[in-house]
User: Which sequence fits this backbone?
């Protein structure tokens, strides 16, 4: 799998739960090429490295919501245990308890993906802030110039209406 495909694959494995971006133990195990049981066993042997803001177990309700809300979440209805999820910091800590070259390589890709998602979110916030500022200035300008904003929006709607009749060619004034 090439690097771009891996990053896109990882992006699809990141969910927001309890206001945190997390990855599910099953998805991480698949990336690290270990079984879920081995991953969770390594974590439990080193549980002091995984405070709740690094890793937590989903409730029954969260598991059900994740299963039905996201078709990409690989959570089996037959599983006896609710999955564990890992925050970005928890994923980083996993590389220290899963001591393999594969774990290190995958962790680097996961960290890069989290950084890209964070950059995108910051850029989106900046763009939203700029648009809000432009709108505020436009409204002030329109008010100062005694321009009716509703008229402008009506004209813009008319110009962008694809169903309005259009004339092609030039008209000739007969006068």
Assistant:
């Amino acid at each position: 799998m090439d690097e771009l495909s891996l990053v896109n694959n990882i992006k699809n494995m990141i969910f927001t739960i309890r206001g945190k971006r997390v990855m599910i133990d099953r998805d991480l195990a698949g990336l690290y090429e270990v079984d879920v049981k081995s991953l969770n066993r390594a974590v439990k042997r080193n549980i002091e490295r995984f405070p709740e803001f690094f890793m937590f177990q989903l409730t029954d309700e969260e598991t059900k919501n994740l299963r039905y809300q996201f078709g990409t979440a690989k959570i089996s209805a037959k599983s006896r245990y609710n999955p564990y999820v890992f925050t970005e910091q928890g994923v980083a800590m996993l590389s220290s308890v899963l001591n393999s070259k594969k774990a290190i390589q995958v962790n680097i890709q996961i960290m890069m993906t989290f950084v890209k998602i964070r950059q995108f979110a910051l850029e989106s916030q900046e763009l939203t802030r700029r648009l809000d500022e432009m709108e505020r200035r436009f409204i002030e300008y329109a008010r100062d110039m005694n321009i009716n904003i509703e008229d402008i929006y009506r004209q813009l709607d008319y110009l962008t209406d694809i169903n309005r009749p259009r004339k092609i060619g030039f008209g000739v004034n007969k006068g």
Observations:
- The first strand starts at residue 14 and ends at 17.
- The chain has a mean pLDDT of 80.
- The helical segments are 3-11, 25-32, 36-45, 60-69, 88-97, 101-144, 149-160.
- Residues 101-144 form the longest helix (44 residues).
